[in-house]
Amino acid sequence: MLRRTYYNIALALAASALAPATAHAGFYSGDDLYAVCTADKEGKDYFEKSYECLGYISGAVDAFNTTREANKLKSCIPGDVTINQLRNTTVAYLSKNPIDRKKSASSQVFAATRKAWPCPTAKPATKKKTSRKKR
């Protein structure tokens, strides 16, 4: 009897693992990113979380820049900005915008970098006046 109960529990767990889960906009939320980026320096997993934070942010920024390059645009982030500056900028943004941390982490990295280093606005093309010759 007990064996059958364990079997039923295992079957139920397996079935629930196969059920579709709610999809999110990203794998990582802003809350998740904020948690690893602000990990306790005395914690046993501090270095792991620090590398996770830096890796996520630098990967997100690389993805943004790749998208810009594919669209024949330059990066808006100056070339001399360090990964640590990107981290500090992102953490400061997440700290000041706790409501937005429910959104995807990548959207929050994007918002933080755009706020710190805004892209120049494109100027609309001006139409050349065509001169009409008098006849």
TrEMBL record:
What Pfam families does its record include? Rap1a
User: Which InterPro entries does the annotation name?
Assistant: Rap1a
- Domain Rap1a immunity protein stretches: 29-119
> Is-annotated flag, keyword Signal?
yes
Report keywords, A-Z. Answer: Signal
Q: Which residues form the signal peptide?
A: 1-25
| Name used for this protein in its record | Rap1a/Tai family immunity protein
